[in-house]
Amino acid sequence: MVIQISNQAGRRIFLAKQGLSAQPTRALSKMDLLALIHELGFVQVDSISTVERAHNQILFSRNQTFRREHLRQLLEEDRALFEHWTHDASIIPCAFYPYWKHRFLRREASIRTRWAKWQGEGFDKAFDETYAKIAESGAILAREVKEADHKSGGWWEWHPSKTALEFLWHTGKLAIAARENFQKIYDLSERVIPAHHRDHEVSHAEFVDWACRSALTRLGFATHGEIAAFWDLVSPEEAKDWVRSNREGLEEVEIECTGGAKARASFSFPGLSPNQEDWPEPPARIRVLSPFDPLLRDRNRAERLFGFRYRIEVFVPEARREYGYYVFPLLEGDRLIGRIDMRADRKAGTLNVARLWLEPKIRASAGRMARLDAELARIAHFAGVGDIVHADGWSGA
Questions:
Q1: CA–CA separation, 277 vs 297, rounded Å?
Q2: How many CB atoms lie within 10 A of CB 30?
Q3: All structural domains of the chain with their residue ranges
Q4: How far is C-alpha 243 from the geometric centre of its chain's CA atoms?
Q5: How many C-beta neighbours within 10 Å does residue 24 have?
Q6: Beta bridge partners of residue 179, listed in sequence order
Q7: Tell me: the pLDDT tens digits for 37-67?
Q8: Which of 93, 146, 241, 371 could form a disulfide with 286 if both were Cys (CB 3.0 to 4.6 A apart)?
């Protein structure tokens, strides 16, 4: 029997799984923060900081008592977290490191092939030398290994030692020990990753089972393609085989989509209640989400569940942008109600709000705008600025 899950129940399930249904005012200790990241699976890292770094914004949107210093300690002192790749650069619990060792092996051959085409023959000439230098001298920044005669440029102009650092990191030989002004500090993995995680081995079958099982747990319901995409550790074919081989321990569900679209056939573990009353009602407050929030990472899934189409326009020429360079989605209860363009000016001490776009049929009622003002005040405080400055016509009214 296929279990039918309404759209509202589907939204509540996914919000609960993504840590957005708990009260954002509850006290969050350092160990609570670690538990939250375990529950999410990973937190994406990005360099853009128009208001805050993506990882800080993601965590703050779930709990406003989040402290950046706790995250730094968990990464750089406690070594309970490490930085590596999921679908993008992310912060990941060190307990998951044994599974990433399989990723390292898979990536090495493909990276060598692709980077040889990208950078040409001899792209790997500095690999051994760079590794030996770090082994002897200790942790190092990319700029400290740069050749004196190499001109700065984008990723396509990496100098040989920068190429070496990234290759050695992607394949697990180096790890990120810390960051300085957001620049990576590299060191040998054995000096960063705790031995009990680094030395633990899992078989290929255990690796695939964990990758699929842990992804479905965090998604609540998913297709085999969504299971594979969650961590980007296994292929869709491997996820499909896993579903087939574990079929007796899974249930078929159909998720009602917005806009009258066809229901989405998916799988879940047994016991996933289709009754929305069995899932917590998300806080009614408005929350500003990072463009890289895991709720929106799968854009198609977000559109099916919330009827909200979102694209990052950082690389879109300004004249062709529909909204703006880096626009933040707005979550109210269990609905994505709009987006806002804003920037923190730390020199002036202001949060500058350029424009608000509400979704169709979402009214700018007095109560809603008051909730938005309260969230902007929280964001301004978190970003370390004071006054909120609205541009003329910012509300679009």
A1: 26
A2: 15
A3: 94-193, 286-390
A4: 25
A5: 20
A6: 184
A7: 999 999 999 989 999 999 999 999 999 999 9
A8: 371
Question: Which tokens go with 148?
Answer: 């004196």
Question: By CB neighbour count within 10 A (0-12 exposed, 13-18 middle, 19+ buried), where does 42 fall?
Answer: buried
Average pLDDT score over residue span 245-254: 98
Closest CA to 83 of 196, 208, 170, 202: 170
| Phi, psi angle pair for 396, to nearest 5° | 75, 5
DSSP code, position 107: H
230: number of Cβ within 10 Å: 26
Place of tokens 């990576």: 184
Residue 307 backbone dihedrals phi, psi, to 5 degrees: 65, 30
Distance CA 59, CA 14 (A): 17
Q: Which amino acid is at 91?
A: I
Helices (H), 277-365: 299-306
Mean per-residue pLDDT of the chain: 93
- Contacts (Cβ under 8 Å, ≥6 apart) of 33: 59, 66, 67, 70, 71, 74
pLDDT in tens, 312-363: 998 899 889 999 899 999 999 999 999 999 999 999 999 999 999 999 999 9
CATH number belonging to the domain at 286-390, selected among 1.10.287, 3.40.630, 3.40.1000, 1.20.1370: 3.40.630
Say how many Å lie between the first and final Cα of the chain, rounded: 49
Q: 82 forms bridges with which residues in the sheet?
A: 92
Residue 150 has pLDDT above 70, yes or no: no
Question: What CATH architecture is 94-193?
Answer: Orthogonal Bundle (1.10)
